[in-house]
Amino acid sequence: MKIATWNINSLTIRLPQVQDWLTQHPVDILCLQELKLTDDKFPRAAFEAMGYHAVFAGQKTYNGVAILSREVGRDVVRNIPGLDDPQQRVIAATLATPSGDIRVINVYCPNGQAVGSDKYAYKLQWFAALREWLRAQLQVHPRLVVLGDFNVAPADADVHDPAKWEGQVHVSPAEREAFFALTDLGLKDAFRLFEQPAKVYSWWDYRQMAFRRNAGLRIDHILLSEPLAAACRACEVDKAVRGNTQPSDHAPVVATLD
Q: How far is it, in rounded angstroms, from Cα 61 to Cα 153?
């Protein structure tokens, strides 16, 4: 079973790229972030023609998340329960597998803009609300995966130039603490379950030839509960699509589960 996450940075612009990628990599579940379209514009028929069901939460111009899956999603939840937030950043669904149900939670975590800004404070508050919800979800769904764009590089190994980025948004101590508060619930970073090459990232700025220089950050993650982590056999970043014409600034991350 393969499950993937990809911040597509506008599904309207990059639908053909998603379709091409799914044709080449027919994963069982693909979670998308930054749809940047309203629900009435979601290309449901295009994905159904490829054999995928879709649940989604859209928003004009910004944000938006979707889960594409071979199986029909059940018990769908949009946004973090109890959090008064108009931004469409979370969608969850339960999916059947041969080994039993899994709970899939797709997240597009806030960027934070700059350390000390109002958006930074919102980011930390949002992470705290996510943690409390995930704690409750794990009690009900021991087979749980949380994946998406977390906008946090957890360690210096996930940053192309730690000295240059020190103290900035995405790598600040408070953001990393918020990320590790999630893994402290018992969630495992699938990428770090395996020995990996150095300097593997999932996001590269469009500016200053960042992709060509591999000046990136690993901010897209797949977090697995312990039963799913035990079944994980591989996790990798598909960097190739970042070289597409008019690409997203993110690359897909794919985990393989037995």
A: 25
pLDDT at 166: 96
Q: Which one from 120, 149, 158, 249 is the annotated catalytic residue?
A: 149
| Nearest in space to 126 (alpha carbons), one of 218, 75, 251, 118 | 118
Burial of residue 242 (CB within 10 Å: 0-12, 13-18, 19+) is: buried
7, two tokens: 């911040």
Q: What is the C-alpha separation between 171 and 177, in angstroms, rounded?
A: 10
The tens digit of pLDDT for each residue in 162-203 reads 999 999 999 999 999 999 999 999 999 999 999 999 999 999
Q: Report the number of distinct structural domains present in the chain.
A: 1
Is 149 a known active-site residue?
yes
CATH of the domain at 94: 3.60.10.10
Q: Which of 62, 85, 101, 108 is catalytic?
A: 108
CB-based contacts of 198, cutoff 8 Å, min separation 6 = 157
Tell me the β-bridge partners of 103.
94, 144
66: phi then psi, degrees, rounded to nearest 5:
-150, 150
**3-class secondary structure, 54:** strand
Residues 6 or more apart from 97 whose CB is under 8 A from it? 1, 71
- pLDDT (tens digit, 9 = 90+) per residue, 47-87? 999 999 999 999 999 999 999 999 999 999 999 999 999 99
161 catalytic per annotation: no
Helix, strand, coil share of the chain (percent; to 5):
30, 25, 45
Which residue segment(s) compose the domain that 44 sits in?
A: 2-257
% pLDDT > 70, the chain: 100
